[in-house]
Here is the input.
Amino acid sequence: MRHPTHAAFVHFPIALLGTSLLFDALGSWRAEPLFWAIAFWNIALGLALSLPTVGTGLADSIQVPEESPASVATTRHLLVMLSALFCYGLALFARGGSTVPANNALLETLTLEAVGLGLLMYGGWLGGELVYRHGVGRSD
Here is the structure.
């Protein structure tokens, strides 16, 4: 292709995963199970949509030469984003379904989502560094 495809895929997983903590916080505050279900499905769908996002990111990263200063940032971006996905995957597992998590699962879920959100934001910032500072994925 004439341009990288990764950028076309990143928006939905970031939005879905990034808002899960908000919906869980609303579910806790309002004591309404609907918000917990929305957060559950946001994570599930966000993780599913992350598969083509990761795949296209790996395919696009092959274009970055190893000797390029962008190579370190590319690797860091990859590791941070995979760590974020791991946190959200653990949160999905810890909550045990679309209902309100019980006992320790509630704290584990919220903690994993908060860490995942922080990693997601840092990884997104690194992606911006790749494009805007290093010019990765931009046409000449």
Remarks:
- The longest helix spans residues 104-133.
- Helices lie at 6-9, 11-30, 33-61, 70-95, 104-133.
